[in-house]
Amino acid sequence: MPCYSNIEDKIDAKLISDYYGFKMINFDITGIFDTFKNELNSLGNFSKEDVKNSDINLKPRLRMTTLYYLAALYSTIKKKTYLVVGTSNKCELYVGYFTKGGDSVHDISPIADFTVEEVIKIGEYLKVPSKVLYKTPNDGLSNKNDEDKLGVKYSQIASYIKDKNSVDEKTKKKIEQLHNNSKHKFEIPIYRKGGQ
User: Fold this and answer.
1) pTM (predicted TM-score)
2) What does the pLDDT read at residue 88?
3) DSSP bridge partners of 108
4) What pLDDT is stored for residue 31 in this prediction?
5) So what's the pLDDT on residue 196?
6) C-alpha count within 13 angstroms, C-beta hemisphere, residue 28
7) Is the dihedral of CA 41, 6, 157, 97 positive or negative?
8) How far apart are CA 122 and CA 132, in angstroms?
9) Could you tell me the residue ranges of all domains in the chain?
């Protein structure tokens, strides 16, 4: 689902689809993104800095809309149930490194209870091509790798999850700040009649 994306990501996706022998669908959402941005311009003149974070989060939300649309479509025409698979691991989830309403939305989440190191071990067992398996994790949206963006390493997050005292105080505080600031991402709003 390219949208002003790095061509290397598409090449890597093709590598995986060829290696495992499944069909890859290219669904370009650039036009949808552009339409959204054009409509936004009617609300005012926003600077690049004003919209930077919103733009980064818009792409995963458009992608998730696309995945659910295609899952419903193929479920109907193929008479099978198609589900949307989540890709977040335990470290990402702990610090809230995902987009609310974007990659946080899925039907099943097979790697949610595995740290990055454990996911890599699973990938080694499944013989995921090394070009993809050991690729530096990045969101493909912000021009930064995940660890630079977070300000901590995934190995530090994994250590903290196992034993909060296994990391230095500065790292501990950073991880706790990320975790606490993202709690809203895990809470489903509930309507209470009459303000109860």
Assistant:
1) 0.88
2) 96
3) 85
4) 97
5) 56
6) 7
7) positive
8) 13
9) 7-189
Regions of the chain short of the pLDDT cut 70: 195-196
Three-state secondary structure of the chain: CCCCCCHHHHHHHHHHHHHHCCCCCCCCCHHHHHHHHHHHHCCCCCCHHHHHHHHHHHHHHHHHHHHHHHHHHHHHHHCCCCCCECCCCHHHHHHCCCCCCCCCCCCECCCCCCCHHHHHHHHHHCCCCHHHHCCCCECCCCCCEHHHHHCCCHHHHHHHHHCHHHCCHHHHHHHHHHHHHCHHHHCCCCCCHHHC
* Residue 195: predicted pLDDT: 59
Query: Is the separation of the CB atoms in 26 and 3 below 8 Å?
Result: no
pLDDT digits (tens, 9 = 90+) for 36-87: 999 999 999 999 999 999 999 999 999 999 999 999 999 999 999 999 999 9
Give strand pairing partners of 138.
145
CATH topology of domain 7-189: Rossmann fold (3.40.50)
